[in-house]
Amino acid sequence: MRLSPTHAVTLAWNRAGSWNPRQAESLLRRDLRFLLAKLDKRLLGPRFYRKPSAARIEGLFVFEKLGTNPHAHALIRLPETRFPAAQFPELIAQTWQSVAPTGSAIIAHPHSAGFAGYITKDQNPNSGWLVASEFHGS
Fold first, then answer.
1. What is the pTM of this model?
2. Angle, in degrees to the nearest 10, between helices 88-99 and 21-44
3. Which fold has domain 7-128?
4. What gap in Å lies between CA 115 and CA 110, rounded to an integer?
5. Could you read off the pLDDT of 19-50 as tens digits, one per residue?
6. Side-chain half-sphere CA neighbours of 134 within 13 A
7. Contact 7, 73 (CB under 8 A)
8. How do the domains of the chain map onto residue ranges?
9. What count of other Cβ atoms lies within 10 Å of the Cβ of residue 138?
């Protein structure tokens, strides 16, 4: 996968307590699927699911702290649409709130100093991650 990201995003649930890491990853995947579908629908219209992957939101999501404070860091590429890219941070924050009401979203420039290193700081062979195209179907 070659990704030319337009945004760097951190999505958190902000729910206190201890978590079963496998359950947390499963719930994160579910919520990210909902988030990406809602964003694609807003950007591309109600038949977004018929679009090829190259025309939809693409991104790499890296999961972190699944046992204590589950959250995901992502590098996202917006598809070409008429939607103003400058409004995407507000759109993703509002959409994430509709998926995870206690959650928060932080959006940055994808080429911010050290962001790639920051999002992979806790990665190991057992770490979770996903690529948005997993949800695009065939």
1. 0.86
2. 130
3. Alpha-Beta Plaits (3.30.70)
4. 7
5. 888 898 999 999 999 999 999 999 999 999 99
6. 12
7. no
8. 7-128
9. 4
